């Protein structure tokens, strides 16, 4: 579907850096909570809270691969690299994957996100939310790319050498962190990165699942993408991506302009859900109904 050519705000380094500073500031607060609660039962909620803010670095990664987080290409690339390191998600590979998703949204056999977000049974749903599939595929991807096998249907041949170098650089950084942790007998990486992202990943999976799940396999962005109305804290962490239909209709619009685009296009929206809890309640009902139908011999 064609973009809205009447609304073309430019990305802004100032807007991007201010939002990134806010995200990092929040990380500093949640990291401090871990330090204050270590050795007590309260450390678990602190780890979860820190993990949620950490895994939502996916949002600036997403914006940066679109190069709409900042005006500067260098800033976009560096932020994507940093966030990708935290999340085990190679940014150049993700750009190719994500652009294929935008080009073929909800098209069976062409949208690479479809299989990754297929949750048609309760076991599928629970395993998906656990983050297990994400971490397994992330480790396999990095190891496969680092071994020189970076091929995928959506990856241009000319990009493959770059993806191999990217994966090898990421593995080198992880090896360095592991070596330093062992040398200094430090659990900093474990407490402030590894455990938190494992605990926070289910919240990111739950958020991302709402974008297209259960929607028609058609080419119309107004029908195959969901906008979720939510509060300011979630919109802040997600860099305004709950306005997801608006983003697909015009992916060149930077994150900070999405609320205005939403106001302009509100009357055109066909799939709007009043919050993430509402989405998951609706999806759980559909899973239960599907399970009942499958177990009913009269069905």
Structural features, described:
With 299 residues, the chain is mainly α. The chain has one domain (13-293). The chain is 65% helix and 1% strand. The protein has 15 helices and 2 strands. A two-stranded parallel ribbon has the order 1-2. The longest helix has 25 residues, at 13-37. Residues 294-299 have low confidence and may be disordered.
Write the layout of secondary structure elements.
Elements: H1 13-37, H2 43-55, H3 58-66, H4 73-87, H5 91-103, H6 113-116, H7 122-130, H8 132-146, H9 160-183, H10 188-209, H11 221-224, E1 227-228, H12 232-237, H13 244-249, H14 258-265, E2 272-273, H15 276-295
Parallel strand pairs: 1-2
What is the CA–CA distance across the termini?
Answer: 38 Å
The SS-based structural class is mainly alpha
The portion of residues assigned to helices is 55-70%
Number of helices: 15
Overall average pLDDT: 93
Number of domains: 1
What is the strand content?
under 5%
The tally of beta strands, per DSSP, is: 2
Strand ordering within the main sheet: 1-2
Order of helices and strands: HHHHHHHHHHHEHHHEH
């Amino acid at each position: 579907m064609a973009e809205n050519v009447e609304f073309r705000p430019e990305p802004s380094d100032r807007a991007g850096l201010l939002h990134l500073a806010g995200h990092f500031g929040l990380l500093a607060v949640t990291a401090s909570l871990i330090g204050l609660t270590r050795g007590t039962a309260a450390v678990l909620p602190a780890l979860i809270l820190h993990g949620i803010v950490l895994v939502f670095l996916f949002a600036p990664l997403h914006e940066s691969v679109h190069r709409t987080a900042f005006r500067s290409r260098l800033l976009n690339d560096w932020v994507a690299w940093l966030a990708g390191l935290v999340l085990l998600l190679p940014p150049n590979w993700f750009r190719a994957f994500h652009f294929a998703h935008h080009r073929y949204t909800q098209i069976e056999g062409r949208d690479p996100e479809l299989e990754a977000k297929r949750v048609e049974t309760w076991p599928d749903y629970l395993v998906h939310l656990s983050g297990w599939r994400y971490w397994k595929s992330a480790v396999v991807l990095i190891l496969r790319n680092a071994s020189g096998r970076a091929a995928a249907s959506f990856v241009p041949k000319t990009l493959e050498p770059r993806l191999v170098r990217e994966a090898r650089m990421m593995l080198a950084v992880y090896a360095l962190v592991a070596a330093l942790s062992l040398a200094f007998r430090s659990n900093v990486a474990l407490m402030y990165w590894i455990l938190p992202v494992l605990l926070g990943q289910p919240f990111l999976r739950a958020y991302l699942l709402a974008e297209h799940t259960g929607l028609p396999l058609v080419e119309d962005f107004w029908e195959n993408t969901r906008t979720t109305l939510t509060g300011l804290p979630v919109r802040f962490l997600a860099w305004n991506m709950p306005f997801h239909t608006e983003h697909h209709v015009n992916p060149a619009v930077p994150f900070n302009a999405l609320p205005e685009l939403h106001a302009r296009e509100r009357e055109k929206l066909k799939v709007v859900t009043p919050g993430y809890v509402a989405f998951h309640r609706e999806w759980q009902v559909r899973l239960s109904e599907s399970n009942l139908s499958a177990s009913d011999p009269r069905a």
